[in-house]
Amino acid sequence: MVRAKIIYFTAAILLFGLIQSQAAEELDLKEVLPQASSFTAVKKGGEVIYYRAQGQDGQLIGAAFEAKSKSYSEIDTLVGMLKDGTINAIKVLEQNESAGIGSRITEPEFTDRFRNIKDISRVQAITGATVSSQAVIDSVKQKAEEVKALLKE
């Protein structure tokens, strides 16, 4: 009886953690593409390649995807892109860059440079945090090109 209760509570805790994780992911997706009413994971080999973003009418609005890069640490950036290739917004999800220097890639002063921009090569790196910010710029540009091609298929 005690063992059954332990198994039940463990399962409940794991399920609660999964639900919280999915809710957080949905909030992040809405943050980079707030126009979307729903997101559908597009997978290849069990791995999420991007999230297809649909409007209220079910029509394609764009895509959200993760762009991963390496600077002094691994940098994981969530990107929202409209179907015409315009970057709507980015959010740095994870990084371990130097505090006050490379970590500036998480600040609006940098992330807002990506708002509603079609030509990513116009995004300027941060002075004093060039390596970190350029890693984000390059990874967003590369992954955006890949996903844009997939949206056309």
| Strand element count | 5
Q: In angstroms, what is the radius of gyration?
A: 18 Å
- Amount of helix: 25-40%
Low-confidence stretches: 8-24
Please state how the strands of the largest beta sheet are arranged side by side: 1-2-3-4-5
**What is the H/E order?**
HEEEEEHH
Tell me the strand percentage band: 25-35%
Q: What is the overall number of helices?
A: 3
Counting structural domains, the number is 1
Query: Overall pLDDT, averaged?
Result: 82
Shape: globular
Largest sheet properties: 5 strands, antiparallel
Alpha carbon gap, first and last residue: 55 Å
| Structural category | alpha+beta
Task: Describe this entry's structure for a reader.
By secondary structure, this protein is an alpha+beta fold. It has one domain (2-152). Helix content is 38%, strand content 28%. The protein has helices at 2-32, 108-111, 130-152; strands at 38-44, 47-54, 60-70, 74-82, 87-94. It has a 5-stranded antiparallel sheet with strand order 1-2-3-4-5. β1 (38-44) and β2 (47-54) form a beta hairpin. The protein is globular.
Q: What's the arrangement of secondary structure elements?
A:
Layout (H helix, E strand, L loop, with lengths): L1 H31 L5 E7 L2 E8 L5 E11 L3 E9 L4 E8 L13 H4 L18 H23 L1
Antiparallel strand pairs: 1-2, 2-3, 3-4, 4-5
List keywords for this structure.
about 150 residues, alpha+beta, 5-stranded antiparallel sheet
In short:
This protein has 153 residues and is of the alpha+beta class.
